[in-house]
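Changelog note: in this version the structure field was regenerated for every chain. One regenerated record is shown below for reference.
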Amino acid sequence: MEKEKYIQDLRQIKEIMDRSSKFISLSGLSGVAAGIIALAGAWYAYNYIYTKSDYFSYNIIVLSSGDVRSLIGLGAVILILAIGAGLFFTAKKAKKANQKIWNSQAKRLLVNLSIPLVSGGLLSLIFLSRGFIGIIAPLTLIFYGLALVNASKYTHQEIRSLGIIEIILGLISAYFIGFGLLFWAIGFGLLHIVYGIIMHYRYGS
């Protein structure tokens, strides 16, 4: 009995330390929502791009400057919707647990997430402006993975595993350069849904 009480006390201490050092209000449902939004965006982009070219040669398509601007706009809409969904479900979970969504842990998480994300976003825009469209999907996957790994020490450890898989997927995508949209849909769509479901059942909504 004393041993069981000792183990229980250790668990409670660990939970208290996690709450004080990590942002634990991150909702699994936000990942599921972001994944669904990303898949919808990828489907729209696929239909927008490949209706103008032969399916069997889609890895050698030509895009006009107007097409590129439209795709950038689509990416911005997807990002805004995904962030909005993430904030909604995370705020809902924090309120349910009687916790603040904006605290020192959330600030550290955001800073460590933003540095690789902003760097990767700017680098992608530079390559895009030079016409290197095929490298955009691998770059976004790799830098997103790096951002998750960098921020994982301030939230659930599952985020680190997701980040490593995103990096690997980005590297594979860089080899199969003409299939970027497919890898992008897997990385930002399917993986988010899978990890979102896992986190939802482990930590609740």
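Spot check on this record: The two ends are 33 Å apart (CA to CA). The chain has a mean pLDDT of 79.
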